[in-house]
Records
---
Amino acid sequence: MDARKIGILVTRPQPQAQPLIDGLAQLGLAVWHLPLIRIQTVPPSPMPAWTGFDGALFSSAHAVQAARETLPPEFWHWLASVPVGVVGTATATSLRQNGIQPVLVPGVHSAQGLSAELLAQPNKLGKKILHLCGNLTPAAFFLPLTQVGIFISPCVLYRTSTIHYPKADWNTVCQQVDWLTFASGSAVQAFVENAGTGRHKKVAFCLGKHTQQTAQAVGFGNTVLASENSNAGLLASVADYWVKLD
């Protein structure tokens, strides 16, 4: 199979999508970009009383950016004085760029991995933790923490919603692509809202185990887990997959 004849769909919104688009194009693939989700920052209501918490969690780089846009300088002064955990390396990088050094980055970059790390190190962030997150962050992963006396309080700073496309436009793109990239479970669900349910024959490259499990649950029979939870990890997995096919 000629790589120039392979179409791949990037479903991340900008600006996160651009490094992946550029990297895939450099591999010689025909890259299509159709963002499936819209991410909107929302001011927290009510404003969290952060001084009553022992530590903080950030569920994504979006949460860091939303906190920068919506929370006052006093919050960031407090954040610098408490232990902070993040879901993965991209979130950690975003925090460092804002002057905060996280003390907990799980080996498995997901909410589930973060929960497991806190179960293994129950005193790492304290017993009462402020969770800066989006409206679709899976809170169920943190429920086991109550068994060891850790309580997570969510503070929603952004909302994720599906972008719906006209059927004719959607079908035109889908006819051109063989592979897809998904960066979140919500993107997979947005794909289903546009494409419908059923068994999907296209190869789905997934960022994170939760994303892969979601893709498998909605009917993707061929999924590839990114080597790490980043655009670079997705790109490396696509390149490796192509080499094995060649």
---
Amino acid sequence: MLKLENVSKTYGRRKKRTIDGLSFEVAAGEVFALVGTDQAALTAVTRMIAGATPPEEGQILIRGRNSREWPVNCRRSVGYAAEAPRVYRWMTGPQWLDFIADVYGMTRKEKHESLSYLTDRFGIAFPGGRFRDYPPALQQTTAVAAALLPETPLVVLDGIFGRLDGAARTALAQECRVRAERGGAVFFTADTLAEGGLAADRIGLMAGGRLIAVGTERELRDRCGERLTAAGAEALLAAPPWEREVEP
């Protein structure tokens, strides 16, 4: 479903390489979490997958298609929730969701059924006023609803689990499983192994812009401790390459 091959990206005036030869795959029917201490790097990965910015080196394949060669097709295959959602200043929550439904070509019936299900699932009740004036918790759950509204093959979530309350977090974890069971795939980022383990089948550990270990939550926790720490990540980064892969 999703494949990154030697993807690299630099940011800032000093052209710091935030992503450095990152490679991994997410299969159909799988939920995969990328965990790291550098939130900016994690966000850079999700933005590249969602088509908001291209990689400088390497390639991203979505359903076998290169995101550079098939940008529109790849974007329409992804439901994306950003950690800090950007919405037109004049929009209300319902207007934003209507906009998303139109972008993905949903019929009125599809939009109504999906929206009714998601607002009930996440307990969303829109007040008056514009989206930008909503409480942060409501903004995040609305962003999740926007990502899940169309039935896209791939769902990408940028640091969302850590910003939701307990009930919404549990609901999102369950929805990730539902999407995977239907044959879709979910990719999300998190800054702790505990967050990654909420829904992921496999977790990739990123440090220094590189993937340094892959395994289940338990396998990685045994090596890095209960919380992912910079020291734990650096220790794995310093290990010989043949010792980094965590076998199931």
---
Amino acid sequence: MKKTLIIVLCILISFFIAACGGAKKEAADSGISAEAVHSYPESAPSEGTYRNQAAAEEGKNMIGDLDNRKIIQNAELNIDVENMEKIVKDIERQVAAVGGFLEESNTGRYNTDSTWANMVLRVPSSEFQEFLSFLEEKGDVKNRRVYMDDVTTHFIDLEARLRVLKAEEESILSILNNASKVEDVLNIRKELRTIRSEIEVLEGELKYLSDMVAFSTIRVHLQQVKVSETRIDPAGFSGVWQKGLSAFTKNVNSMISLTGNIVVFIIGSIPVLIPLGIAGFGLWHLKKRKKKDQTSI
């Protein structure tokens, strides 16, 4: 009897020990799983995040590379010149020779001896410094201002945003192709129009920046001054024949105009001249007749 009791106790003790060991193992396993769950990232980076990181890295590379920087070059010059007409023609010829163009030109006159000209020139950025030197040799530079605008960061930002929008456009087109409901198709097309409108705006900004970077802007104000009295200026004889011909033509036109005005006056006065002529002729005839009668007496 005692042996049986001892055996039963031993079995119970064994089950108790086994149960405690299993509980510890389960608790340990549970602790590892919880730690693994907490240590795992809640969500993986999205595709947009990777795209932005790549764009940012590309931007850093471009900003660090001086050859790829986007620089807008500008200059403003005030120059006193002695032969305005010749200088303006030289500038127009030179800007075309370097592959640039004249964006704006405006001329005026203060008085008979002083003229001025404002010009906005666009020249390739590679010719910027050399063209400034060319302009400075044309006269006495009274004011010179050169300034740069670094738009590299803005340029990179626009390109990155444009890539994202184009990727979204492709995604929406894919969804549109699979849409079956009319309502879904209309909503998707509305979203597509919005994205395409944003793409056009960004492309316009990029085109404008690219143009400003490729062609530098130079604003020139030319002021004509009197020729120094210490030297002879042969340019004073330029255009003498044209000026003389112009004066001759002007005088001939004035004489023709005067003759025409006289003829117009005479024709317009006919209704008045005819009665006056008749009255004058009657008086003359009456006077002549009276004189004849006096002679016969």
